[in-house]
Design brief:
Shape: rod-shaped
Strand content: 35-45%
Largest sheet: 4 strands, antiparallel
CATH architecture of the largest domain: Sandwich
Strand order of the largest sheet: 1-2-5-4
CATH topology of the largest domain: Immunoglobulin-like
Bound molecules: calcium ion
Distance between the termini: 171 Å
Number of strands: 30
Number of domains: 4
Helix content: under 10%
Number of helices: 1
CATH class of the largest domain: Mainly Beta
Length: 374
């Protein structure tokens, strides 16, 4: 360097390297000499991911480091007579935005149907990235799985993605395998996709009744009479055969149900008249049992009312009254009959009387026979 022989270094404001396009000038070295100079930059360590031109400009190259690196720069200026070397420049590259990466904590999960809705304890992925993370994108296959599971679309401080159950899982109707393709976008880079599988496993469930309760009202019927039928009944989610039983507490034995159909029959006559009650309510449970002995029961209530199931009965098989000629005026009392009806309630036990032939006598409601002639 004829004349002056000094090197002047000016530093540009620093910035995140990856936010700087390739060829951006990040540094300028100012070397003054009257002669034509040749400038050279050496990096330690090498290779040098920077390019220096003869105007003293240091530019970013496409080989820019992807991780934090420290370089020592040394500039050399040569005017073909003499060369001079600059002091060492410490270059620290920090704050590099690297693509986010996943670490599989689990790449597959097993969830039982009917699992509680909400957060599970299944940790699927940990995310490694030095920068602030923006969004998680999850694609579900088949698409129906998006109604079943959920991964947070933003990250907690732990950077761990935990599987959530979004709805009540039904092994019999929902997809039984779900594939989740997960990517992460940090505002600059998108991560490589990772693939997770979630398997739904079957739980043997109780039969399910179509109706929640049955109520039936009828009058006294004889043993063997069907008192209630339903074509719906119960079914087993696993599709096994359902069998029925009925229990009515202390009234058990009055009713029976067919093994494979909701057909309830009076097994023993319940006689209100004999029991001395005008109506009676049986509160029962109808139970459906599947092939694995899982059960479900609903209430079955039978209200029995009085039927007119008793004929009136005269106290005597025949009545004889004697009338002496001239003793009786028209309408006078000839005699009284007595009858009963065993039904417990009105009008089933109400009696009306008639007499025949009607030419000579008539009978009033109080069971008294009257003469029509003297
Ligand atoms: Ca099931
Ligand atoms: Ca079952
Ligand atoms: Ca009667
Ligand atoms: Ca009766």
């Amino acid at each position: 360097m004829t004349g002056s022989g000094f090197l002047l270094i000016s530093v540009q404001p620093n910035a995140l390297p990856t936010s700087i396009p390739v060829d951006t000038v990040i540094y300028v070295v100012d070397v003054r000499d009257d002669e034509q100079l040749t400038l050279r930059l050496t990096c330690d360590p090498s290779p040098c991911p920077f390019a220096l031109n003869n105007d003293g400009e240091v530019r970013v190259t496409s080989d820019f480091p992807k991780a934090q690196t420290d370089f020592l720069w040394t500039f050399t200026a040569d005017d073909s007579f003499v060369s001079v070397t600059s002091p060492t420049v410490n270059v620290a590259i920090t704050g590099i935005n690297t693509p986010p990466t996943f670490v599989y904590l689990n790449n597959s999960a097993v969830v039982a149907e009917k699992s509680p809705i909400g957060l599970t304890d299944i940790k699927l992925l940990a995310i490694i990235d030095s920068n602030e993370l923006n969004s998680v994108t999850v694609t579900f296959t088949p698409a129906l799985c998006a109604n079943m599971f959920f991964l947070p679309d933003s990250l907690t401080s732990s950077n761990v993605l935990v599987l959530n159950v979004l709805s009540e899982l039904d092994y019999e109707t929902d997809p039984t395998y779900c594939t989740l393709h997960v990517t992460l976008f940090d505002g600059l880079f998108t991560s490589d996709p990772c693939v997770l599988t979630v398997e739904i496993i079957d739980v043997d469930e109780n039969p399910v009744w179509t109706d929640s309760a049955y109520v039936q009202t009828l009058t006294e019927v004889t043993s063997g009479t069907t008192v209630f039928t339903s074509r719906y009944g119960a079914s087993d989610p696993e599709g096994t055969n359902v069998s029925y039983s009925i229990s009515c507490g202390t009234d058990s034995g009055f009713l029976s149900v067919e093994k494979h159909a909701v057909v309830v029959t009076m097994a023993t006559t319940f006689d209100l008249d004999a029991a001395g009650v005008e109506h009676y309510k049986m509160v029962c449970n109808l139970t459906a049992t599947d092939a694995e002995s899982n059960m479900a029961a609903i209430p079955f209530t039978l209200r029995i009312e009085d039927a007119n199931d008793n004929y009136p009965v005269f106290k005597k098989g025949s009545y004889t009254f004697e009338i002496y000629q001239g003793n009786k005026s028209i309408g006078s009392e000839v005699g009284k009959v007595t009858a009963t009806d065993a039904d417990i309630s009105s009008p089933n036990n109400e009696l009306t009387f008639s007499v025949s032939p009607t030419t000579d006598f008539y009978i009033t409601g109080d069971a008294i026979i009257h003469s029509k002639s003297e």
